[in-house]
Specification:
The protein is α+β, with helices and mostly antiparallel strands and 129 residues long. It has an eight-stranded mixed beta sheet with strand order 1-2-3-4-5-6-7-8, covered by helices on one side. The relative contact order is 0.16. The protein contains two helices and eight strands; from the N terminus they run ββββββαβαβ.
Length: 129
């Protein structure tokens, strides 16, 4: 994956297969992923701010990149997390795979558990809460 263009709230990438995608940071913190030049959405990563005594943290509450087939396993999720870290200036946390939905609505399903574990291993995610 190659970064083609970036600004504060937007990054454009060319995937290894030549397709171009756009990542948009919106609202409190949602990273929307779409196909460049269209209104087609591949998915999004949603984060909630959790205020604590140390200034607060961001928790990944929902993630999916399967609205359109053919975009999983290409590094897009990693780039979404790195983009979120740029916006927050700190660590990003995720939930635990307990088989149940957390009070904040977050839960890991499908490929999400394996992806989260890999991102924890690579220190892209800071931990689980």
């Amino acid at each position: 994956m190659k970064l083609l263009k970036e600004d504060t709230d937007k990054k454009i990438y060319e995937l290894n297969n030549g397709k171009k995608i756009v990542l948009l940071a919106q609202g409190d913190l949602t990273i929307k992923v779409g196909i460049l030049g269209t209104s087609d959405q591949i998915g999004s990563f949603d984060f909630n701010f959790i205020d604590d005594d140390n200034g607060g943290i961001y928790k990944l509450t929902h993630m999916f990149l399967d609205e359109i087939d053919g975009y999983l396993g290409q590094g897009i999720g990693r780039q979404c997390l790195l983009f979120a870290k740029e916006h927050t200036g700190g660590g990003i946390f995720c939930g635990r795979d307990t088989g149940e939905e957390a009070d904040d609505g977050s839960h890991l399903t499908g490929d999400g558990t394996g992806f989260a574990m890999k991102m924890l291993e690579e220190k892209i995610l800071s931990g689980q809460i």
